[in-house]
Amino acid sequence: MTLVTDAQLMTDRSKFLKNSITVGITCVPFSGGQPKGGVDDGPVEMVRFGILDQIQGMGYSVELSENMDKYRTMQPAHDPPIGKLKNPRYVSMAARRVAEQVQAHCSQGRLAVTLGGDHSIAMGTLVGSSAVYGDDLCVVWIDAHSDINTPSSTDSGNLHGCPLSFVLGLCDESDVPADSPFAWVKPCIRQSRLVYIGLRDVDAGEKAILRKHNIKAFSMHDVDKYGIGRVVEMALDHVNKDRVLPIHMSFDVDALDPSVAPATGTPVRGGLTFREGHYICEAVAETGCLVALDLVEVNPALGDPESLRQTVAVGCSLVRCSLGES
């Protein structure tokens, strides 16, 4: 009797991937969007933990983007702040390279999986996937934070808190002048196609942005009130009611409670449980609409060896669930 693999089941479900049996992996060892060292080792540790073998064990073939070490060596020798923004040239260069690599995977019909690295790289992953799937691309953002600060609203200047403002076109011309390192980033995601799950630490300026633009967000209050199954259903109904549009899911491990994923740079108590995080990935996989996945903010430098092992293991299992493991 021939066993049906997870990859074969996902291939049968897939509505958009021309080469759904192949997963395109981009490893992005990058930490320039925030101040804590170590998050650049996140994808290295996930590979060391066996994520590539695990994906192949599900029946997929793996196509790995080349030369991930370039993300470490491309840092400019001189990168002073622009306004409040820290490391702006480095973040821009890395995001642009990510965009090119993700676009290459998507254009070949592969499911594009990007392992970070800090969440500023999503500026690039979203540009890359939307270049292939257009502005009907839906974005499901799983995070404790909304990452929608503009260059003028950010207090910290850390660009891992800003990627969505660029791709949604929320930045004023004064935020991104013609000579800005980010002038290449054009609005590519429709505000009505973005939904959040897991928010619980949102800056005042970000709350104002979310309300002004009527962007849908399900906080941990909503998860407690309705349960994760209903929240995921409502989130998908908001951006993709008939499940006929492509989905890009961007998952920051700090969406999970620190007891589940302790080795991350900005942990916030009261997060998703182990099962809630995995259910989100399983439910999105079941739609057959997933075309791109980010898994970011695993930081091996934070915590003891057991915290590292636990967080890397959770990151790997979230990826597998997104690829059809249940």
Question: Topology, pairings included?
Answer:
Elements: H1 6-13, E1 22-28, H2 42-48, H3 51-57, E2 61-64, H4 70-73, H5 88-107, E3 111-116, H6 122-133, E4 138-142, H7 163-167, E5 194-199, H8 204-212, E6 216-219, H9 220-226, H10 228-240, E7 247-252, H11 274-286, E8 290-296, H12 305-322
Parallel strand pairs: 1-2, 1-3, 3-8, 4-5, 4-7, 5-6, 7-8
Helix pairs in contact: 5-6, 9-10, 10-11, 11-12
Offer a few descriptive terms.
single chain; 326 residues; alpha/beta; 8-stranded parallel β-sheet; 38% helix; globular
Can you give a write-up of this model?
The protein is an alpha/beta fold and 326 residues long. Strands 2-1-3-8-7-4-5-6 form an 8-stranded parallel beta sheet, with helices on both faces. The chain is built from 12 helices and 8 strands. 38% of the residues lie in helices and 14% in strands.
User: What percentage of the residues does DSSP assign to strands (E)?
Assistant: 5-15%
Task: Estimate the helix proportion, in percent.
Answer: 25-40%
State the major sheet: 8 strands, parallel
- Secondary-structure-based class equals alpha/beta
CA-based gyration radius: 18 Å
Order of helices and strands: HEHHEHHEHEHEHEHHEHEH
Number of strands: 8
Q: Calculate the mean pLDDT score and round it.
A: 97
Principal-axis shape equals: globular
Tell me the distance between the termini: 21 Å
Helical element count?
Answer: 12
Strand order, sheet with most strands: 2-1-3-8-7-4-5-6
Which spans have pLDDT < 50 for at least 5 consecutive residues?
none
